[in-house]
From TrEMBL:
<keyword id="KW-0732">Signal</keyword>
<protein>
    <recommendedName>
        <fullName>Peptidase M23 domain-containing protein</fullName>
    </recommendedName>
</protein>
<comment type="similarity">
    <text>Belongs to the LECT2/MIM-1 family.</text>
</comment>
<keyword id="KW-1015">Disulfide bond</keyword>
<keyword id="KW-0479">Metal-binding</keyword>
<dbReference type="InterPro" id="IPR011055">
    <property type="entry name" value="Dup_hybrid_motif"/>
</dbReference>
<keyword id="KW-0862">Zinc</keyword>
<dbReference type="InterPro" id="IPR008663">
    <property type="entry name" value="LECT2"/>
</dbReference>
<dbReference type="GO" id="GO:0046872">
    <property type="term" value="F:metal ion binding"/>
</dbReference>
Length: 79
């Protein structure tokens, strides 16, 4: 389930958009996507959103999705 919108930065730039997705025993945040929705169940393989263009803010950076844990837990078991 997508739980909420996240704001990775304190400013209002074009890439300040992310979602928080908790699971069984873990939680991840996905940055640099424009989600289809912010608070709904999701299924494996379902489209979450579209990639944001990082070039609008940092012209030299390749657009990518940034995934990070919500806490300091070890994600190795899920890789």
């Amino acid at each position: 389930m997508i739980m909420d919108q996240e704001k990775p930065y304190q400013n209002k730039n074009a890439i300040n958009n992310a979602v928080r997705i908790p699971g069984r025993g873990f939680c991840v945040k996905m940055f640099y996507i424009k989600p289809i929705k912010y608070k709904d169940p999701i299924k494996r393989g379902q489209k979450l959103g579209t990639l944001s263009s990082l070039q609008k803010v940092s012209p030299g950076i390749q657009s990518h999705v940034h995934i990070q844990n919500c806490d300091l837990s070890d994600p190795t078991a899920y890789l």
